[in-house]
Amino acid sequence: MAELKELRNRIDAIKSTQKITSAMKMIAAARLRKVQILVDKNKEYSDNLRKSALRVVTELEREENDKKIRYIRPLLLRQKSNPQNYLIYVLSSDRGLCGDYNTSIIKKASKRINQLLTTGKHIEVRCIGKKAYEALRRYFSHQNLLIKLQTSNDKKLSYAAQAENLTKLLIQQFENNEFDVCEFVYSDFISALTHTFECEQLCPLVLNTEHLSAEKLQNIGYAGNAGYEYLPDKMTVLTEILPILFSDNIFKVVVNADAAEHSVRMTSMDNATRNAQKMISELTLKYNSLRQSAITTELIEIIAGADAV
Fold it and tell me: Which residues in 143-178 are b (16+ Cβ under 10 Å) and which e?
């Protein structure tokens, strides 16, 4: 009977856990739907914004080649030939129960940090999310590495406000020569079941035409048969559009990272709920079997006692 009571208590405990994991799954699914809408809406805007900046840069390069002149690039496009100071942002979650999400982010960040350390670069790491902060501090405790937990970027703010605050901070620091290159390690959301872990340079901006075919590159300055005109001039347009593109890139990173976190947590909690149901079924079967055996034993004892009388 003691074993039956232990099994009954265990089944009740697993049922309570199952209710929690099921609720967490629904919460993650609801949050994912909201963020996924932002990801989908931002994609077309982001692509068009990047194409616009790339178009201006390409036409300026052609103008430089044709007229044998050289334009001074805006600050956000100035790449140093041998950058030494790197600022790395690592986006993770504050909580666990999201599968391999944090582990994969930490591995990606650690790999990149080790690459830079072996080449003698100076690195500062800022973590948005406690899990990455705690793990990286532990992994690199023997290194003279500055690792901070980013607190100014309050996750209670809207995604647009988070991106705006971070954009202002990074542009100010870049203007003050506090870093040469800023990279973001994050999870890029593709679908509810698919995401990749990326390390992407966001500052200075990288605008190249390597992914364009020769035909698209030739016609980049035209919309059909009509060409583009720039007022007041190309350089002014480029100078104005780059901060918007930079802010959009940060917004895209923040939103994709959050969407990936919610999708992984939803999947993990769904698996946990299924596993709990499987355990409940197995334990219930075992409980019923033991209970039936106990009843049969009692009946045999009663019958044997009656026969003795």
Answer: eebebeebeebeeeeebeebbeebbeebbeebeeee
Burial (0-12, 13-18, 19+ Cβ within 10 Å), 124: middle
> Who's near 32: CB < 8 A, 6+ residues apart?
192, 259, 262, 263, 266
Return the closest-CA partner of residue 108 out of 188, 164, 165: 188
Tracing tokens 């506090």 back to the chain, one arrives at: 178
What is the signed CA dihedral for 162, 167, 170, 172, rounded to 10 degrees? Answer: -120
Q: Please report the sign of the dihedral spanned by the C-alpha atoms of residue 281, residue 283, residue 286, residue 288.
A: negative
State both tokens at 252. 């895209």
CA distance 258 to 266: 12
Is the confidence at residue 17, as pLDDT, over 50?
A: yes
According to the model, what pLDDT value does residue 58 have? 86
Closest CA to 79 of 179, 180, 171, 172: 180
| Alpha-carbon span 25 to 194, nearest angstrom | 17
Query: Is pLDDT at 25 greater than 50 in this prediction?
Result: yes
% of the chain surpassing 90 pLDDT = 58
Q: What are the strands of the beta sheet with 85-91, ordered from one edge?
A: 146-149, 122-128, 85-91, 181-191, 194-203
**Mean pLDDT across the stretch 20-33?**
94
Burial of 191 (C-beta count, 10 Å sphere; 0-12/13-18/19+): exposed
pTM as predicted: 0.87
Q: Answer yes or no: is pLDDT of 79 > 80.
A: yes
| Cα–Cα distance measured from residue 277 to residue 275, given in angstroms and rounded to the nearest whole number | 5
